[in-house]
């Protein structure tokens, strides 16, 4: 709802609107977790609008699979579920961002919320489930974008998410729950007004 309200506020005056659905592969960078770093799969959406090269908006993401931790020969396994929602600042370094290859730089901040689930022999122990309080964190990333057809682009990139939880970790102490994210998505890039006219002039002159 927040993303929809924000996008509606600048929709009439925006030079460019951006919509993206993405997935990828995340790798935990947690501290003091037995079992080593684990990989898992996210699914997310981004909506942003603004100038031709810079847009602001929002991002929503949640896990499709969860990172799972288990010591050797132990019947107990821990999974960490997470949902993220927050603000997004996105830049595209390109001559014509909506139509050509570009370097993507993005940064965001928002709330990370989730829970810790404990399983014994793959059976959930309900009384050991811990619901985390939402925690403020940030993320930053770098990637590339290129058109598939007209205004539809593919985008690949890397993003690091920095988040820590005070007293909500497995150890009960403040702990880093940051993770690396390698992402691939499909986006729709819409241009309006003077920006659209400029793009048409440039494309026509090249032809």
Overview of the molecule:
With 207 residues, the chain is mainly beta. The chain is built from two helices and 14 strands, in the order αββββββββββββββα. A hairpin with an 8-residue loop joins strand 6 (76-93) and strand 7 (102-120). The chain is elongated.
Uncertain spans: none
**Main beta sheet:** 8 strands, antiparallel, barrel
Number of strands: 14
Distance linking N and C termini: 42 Å
Structural class, judged by helices and strands? Answer: mainly beta
Number of helices, counting only DSSP H or I runs of 4 residues or more: 2
Strand content: over 45%
Strand order of the largest sheet: 1-3-4-6-7-10-11-14
Overall outline: elongated
**Cα Rg:** 20 Å
Descriptive labels:
207 residues; 11% helix; elongated; two-stranded antiparallel ribbon; single chain; eight-stranded antiparallel β-barrel; 14 strands; mainly beta
Summarize the structure.
The chain is mainly beta.
List the helices and strands and how they pair.
Elements: H1 2-10, E1 16-28, E2 39-40, E3 42-50, E4 54-63, E5 68-69, E6 76-93, E7 102-120, E8 123-124, E9 130-131, E10 135-149, E11 152-162, E12 164-165, E13 175-176, E14 179-191, H2 193-206
Antiparallel strand pairs: 1-2, 1-3, 1-14, 3-4, 4-6, 5-6, 6-7, 7-8, 7-9, 7-10, 10-11, 11-14, 12-13
